[in-house]
Amino acid sequence: MISTAATSPIKLNPSDQKLKGFKVYEVDRPCHAKPHFTRRDYYKVILLTTKARLHYGHQSWELDGTYLLFFNPHIPYSLELLADYRYGYISLFTEEFIALLDRSESLPQSPLFKIGGTPIFKLQAAQIPFMTGIFQKMLAAQEADYPFKAELIRTYLQLAIHEALQLQPVENFVQHHHAAARLSARFLDLLEQQFPVESPEQTLALKTAQEFADRLGVHVNHLNRAVKEVTGKPTSAHITSRLTDEAKALLHHTTWSVAEIAYCLGFAYPTYFNNFFKKQTGITPLACRKAVGTAVFA
Fold this sequence. Notes:
InterPro entries: Homeodomain-like_sf, HTH-like, HTH_AraC. This is Helix-turn-helix domain-containing protein. It is globular, with a radius of gyration of 20 Å. By secondary structure, the chain is α+β, with helices and mostly antiparallel strands. The protein folds into two domains: 22-174, Sandwich (Jelly Rolls); 178-290, Arc Repressor Mutant, subunit A (Orthogonal Bundle), CATH 1.10.10. It has ten helices and six strands, in the order ββββαβααβααααααα. Helix 2 (128-143) packs antiparallel against helix 3 and helix 4 crosses helix 6.
């Protein structure tokens, strides 16, 4: 069983030609050498040939063949191998990495990654060489000295995404807890709609589980149960994680003062923001700003 509790996660190399927020590698070993593609903080696009049982949130599939898979870090999953083989390619990336493509929608809202969507596509024999070629090109670009390889890899990822959108998703799955999945999807969409923060004068309207529950018209305990059931994490953990990611982005990519960032993220005082940020990342906001150019994945 390959689960989200893996203890040896892939680590991105910050010195790897500034290729920050992305990693691709090949899987070509027997099942006793488990691939570490269970990082909860990365999106994943995977090309995999195997016989296995996939559990993804509230859905399950029986796999037998070659598949293109799309995994959202908000949704827990596991892969139960039913044969002694699996091979293919695994790409991991942050939303910040892919967002530089200037996509019109965020990844959590994409039909390939959203909660309640179908993230699995079985490939026909004629489709496998083309998709394999995309992953091989990403792997070659990752190892190259080409200064614009990040942009090239984003293009390959976008091509893989568009190819999948043209395919028919696998529908023979077992689905449970429809109401919880719908409520969780509404919560995550509502959370994501508040970002990115584009002005120091902008401030978040919703910052607590209670405020989200009020907007969604449900009791906060009901919201918490649904989100925990579907994603494996409580509502507050999603809010905290998204606030932390946005804080990092603003510290790295704007000249706004720490006080301005604290205000727009809903903190009444800069000291509250400083304490929050240090608790989540282990460093102060100013230290994070000074560390621009290094990989920070808390």
